[in-house]
Here is the input.
Amino acid sequence: MRARIRGLKLFVDDIPASISDGQGQGAVIPLFAINSIEVLRGPWAVPFGNAAGGVISAKTALPMYASPTPQFETSITAGPDQTLISTLQAGASGENIAGHIARQRLSSDGNRAHSQVHREQSYRGWI
Here is the structure.
């Protein structure tokens, strides 16, 4: 079961990641590809609409890969209960275009019965 977020507006690179009635899922934000996250509450959330109880705005790491030579980064993290997280990121830029591609795979047996999890996320961004 996925947890739903209500009353918060979610944005990834200034693109809405929640629907207009305020429902959204935190899993749509690719945390492995994020450069910064901004949280706005109260009067600072008003420009995003009157239904905004708050705003979570995430910016991806595209600027860090703005290099004419291709950049690659990979990481593997292991933990208890056969938890394994593998991440691959690549990016490059040319005269008029820059791109960033990221992929992450998470798997774990969990510490209780029926708490096994498998999740794959991908992200790509271009400017």
